[in-house]
Amino acid sequence: MSRSISPATFPWRKMAHSGFALLIFAYILRLCFAYEGQLAVAEGETRIISTRKTQTVIELETFDESTYTSQVCCNGTSTEIRPNKPFYAGFWQIWQSSWMEMPNGKKVSVFGISHDISVVFALFGGILTLLGAWGGVFGTSRAPSDAGNGRDNVQNRRFSRTSLLMLLCGVGVLCAAAWRGWHTGRLPLGNVYEFIMASAAMLPIVALRSGKVTKRDLFMEILLIIPLFAMDGTPKPLPPALQSPFFVPHVGAYVLGYMLVLRCAILQKTDGLHLGFAFITTGMLLGAAWAQVCWGRWWGFDPKETWSLATFLACAAVFHAPEGSKLQKSLLSLTGILVLLTLFWVNFSRLFPGLHSYSR
Question: Smallest Cα–Cα separation from 124: which of 24, 57, 215?
Answer without folding.
Answer: 24
